[in-house]
Specification:
Elements lengths: L2 H15 L9 H10 L6 H8 L3 H11 L13 H8 L1 H12 L9 H25 L7 H10 L4 H10 L1 H5 L1 H22 L4 H9 L14 H12 L9 H4 L3 H6 L14 H9 L5
Helix pairs in contact: 1-11, 2-3, 2-6, 3-5, 4-5, 5-6, 6-8, 7-8, 7-9, 7-13, 7-16, 8-13, 9-11, 11-12, 12-13
């Protein structure tokens, strides 16, 4: 068994035993999910839960009144927001809006990496949301959440590395470790959180450049994979054009392998608006 497999198994064991305590979804997000899963749930029931968190309520109202979701009439109550957007969309939006809390560093050694991870995740989320708006059968709110959680498996690796002072300081070794095992860990975490299978698949499969969703595509994995790969343009993680041309997800979503998210045709403003959802005070 390789050193990386040992590290992976150790994290899984410590997660299961509670020795490695992962950040958890905030209670309000769990309550929202529970209500939405009830077929008898009402907009008022969901609004009553959300309004127990003043900051979340304010952010949800800002989102509901943002250019991406705004209707003809301004929304001035959480219940109106839930009624207009729908229970399922509000569930995904709430989960997305509270996700940032899990990327907060407890010390300076982790701060830089967690900030970079959150920034990258929000860019992928915004690009995924914009792309989903061009495709039939993929909801923009679900694509946004998928983009946010695609690299959730990096969190336990950083937490475990922080316990090992040598590993957190060895950037090259840590980066190799992250690249090789974070998708598997991400899938394990989302399964533990009882996320739906299509979101678990995003965490597990978005790095598989040979993946083919076939006649079932495009799907969420295709969207997030394209969003992630295009975000690498101009960086040291950029994939060479010949390899990109063989990545089927680009064909599935109808995207040019050379496009950058800031050049999404006339929708560059839409991307900026989507990204702004994560920068609301």
């Amino acid at each position: 068994m390789s050193e990386q497999d040992v590290f992976y198994n150790t994290i899984l064991e410590e997660m299961d035993s509670g020795k490695l305590v992962l950040p958890t979804l905030p209670e309000v997000a769990l309550q929202v999910r529970e209500v939405v899963d009830d077929p008898e749930a009402t907009a008022k029931q969901l609004a009553d839960i959300i309004t127990t968190d003043a900051a979340l309520s304010a952010r949800l109202l800002k989102v509901a009144n943002s250019p991406l979701y705004r209707g003809r009439v301004s929304i001035d109550s959480v219940q109106m927001a839930v009624s207009r957007l729908g229970l399922s969309m509000v569930r995904n939006l709430v989960t997305s809006l509270v996700m940032e809390q899990m990327f907060q560093a407890t010390n300076n050694r982790l701060d830089k990496r967690l900030r970079a991870l959150w920034e990258q995740s929000t860019k992928v989320a915004a690009a995924s949301q914009v792309m989903a708006g061009k495709l039939s059968g993929i909801r923009t709110d679900e694509a946004m959440l998928a983009g946010l959680i695609h690299a959730i498996g990096v969190l336990p690796i950083l937490m475990k590395a922080d316990e090992d002072g040598d590993l957190i300081r060895d950037s090259k070794k840590l980066d190799q470790l992250i690249d090789n095992i974070y998708p598997r860990l991400g899938a394990a975490i989302l399964q533990k959180w009882e996320f739906p299978d299509n979101l678990v698949a995003v965490a597990r499969e978005h790095t598989n450049l040979n993946r083919n969703s076939g006649d079932n595509g495009p799907d969420l994995v295709d969207v997030v994979q394209v969003a992630l790969l295009q975000s690498y343009n101009g960086t040291d993680k950029a994939i060479d054009p010949l390899t990109l041309n063989e990545v089927i997800s680009f064909k599935q979503v109808g995207a040019d392998t050379g496009f950058s998210v800031e050049e999404l045709d006339e929708d560059s403003e839409e991307y900026r608006e989507a990204l702004a959802l994560f920068n609301m005070a």
